């Protein structure tokens, strides 16, 4: 569905004249209606790759392309095809806005009448399993997990083909993390979309993701079917990550 081909992103390094290869010749394909997990420790280049895919950053080299089938569907790739949810929901939410206004903002920006958008907001909250009374609340009246559900509802308002979730559970308790993973799995099934799920926690992806790529220093160390990679990893790095994680 979406192909990333030999994509690199270089920054000027901390020392003068050096180059920081945040993402270095990464190739991967995200298929329709799958959860693709991107795993790696902090600083491995996950967020940079996510921002390249979303279009928030331009690659130094390489290509990011929708499948021909999708390109034929629409000449101009609407930005709404990819939606991003961040680790820190406060970064993407205006604290002075009510939840309903946060959720309907992308709809209104794309020309949806407000009254219709508000009806849609109720449906979107239902999709992320929050009740209607959240509509009138402010972000400060919601827990971390609830805020991530609201961020997801807003992302879903644009009916994306791909939802990029960058460490969205990292600041949450493990029990809340499990609920969010279950919700994402639900949404994958009901919405038919794909999810790029970025995490540093290898132990969370079994039974959840379809494919996984393990990233280190801007490069992909190993990639494949999740259960295969978890049960029979081929790269030394993945093996070390597995030993360090609580996954048995
Ligand atoms: N705008 C930038 N300028 C310079 N270096 C950057 C920039 N963005 C990210 N980096 C560096 O690129 C590397 C990868 O960062 P990042 O993609 O945030 O990793 P991750 O999300 O896996 O923690 C890090 O070493 C980071 O310091
Ligand atoms: Mg990151």
TrEMBL record:
Residues 2-242 form the ABC transporter domain. One of its GO terms (molecular function) is ATP binding. It comes from the Bacteria. It comes from Paenibacillus nasutitermitis. This is ABC transporter domain-containing protein. It holds the Pfam family ABC_tran. CDD domains: ABC_NikE_OppD_transporters. Keywords: ATP-binding, Nucleotide-binding, Transport. The keyword Repeat does not apply. The keyword Repressor does not apply. Belongs to the ABC transporter superfamily. GO terms for biological process: transmembrane transport. InterPro entries: AAA+_ATPase, ABC_transp_ATP-bind, ABC_transporter-like_ATP-bd, ABC_transporter-like_CS, P-loop_NTPase.
């Amino acid at each position: 569905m979406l192909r990333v081909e030999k994509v690199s992103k270089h920054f000027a390094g901390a020392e003068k004249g050096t180059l920081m290869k945040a993402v270095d010749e990464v190739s991967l394909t995200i298929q329709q209606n799958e959860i693709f997990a991107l795993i790696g420790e902090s600083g491995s280049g996950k967020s940079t790759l996510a921002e390249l895919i979303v279009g928030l950053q331009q690659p130094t080299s390489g290509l990011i392309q929708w499948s021909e089938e999708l390109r034929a569907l629409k000449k101009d790739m609407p930005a709404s095809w990819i939606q991003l949810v961040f680790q820190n929901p406060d970064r993407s939410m205006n604290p002075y806005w009510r939840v309903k206004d946060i959720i309907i903002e992308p709809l209104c920006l794309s020309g949806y009448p407000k009254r219709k958008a508000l009806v849609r907001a109720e449906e979107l909250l239902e999709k992320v399993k929050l009740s209607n009374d959240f509509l009138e609340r402010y972000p400060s009246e919601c827990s971390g997990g609830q805020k991530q559900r609201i961020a997801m509802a807003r992302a879903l308002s644009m009916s994306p083909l791909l939802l990029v979730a960058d460490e969205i559970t990292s600041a949450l308790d493990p029990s809340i993390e499990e609920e969010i993973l279950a919700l994402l799995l639900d949404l994958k099934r009901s919405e038919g979309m794909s999810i790029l799920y970025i995490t540093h926690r290898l132990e969370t992806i079994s039974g959840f993701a379809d494919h996984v790529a393990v990233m280190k220093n801007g490069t992909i160390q190993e990639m494949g079917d999740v259960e295969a990679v978890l049960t029979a990893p081929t790269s030394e790095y993945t093996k070390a990550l597995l030993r360090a994680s609580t996954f048995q």
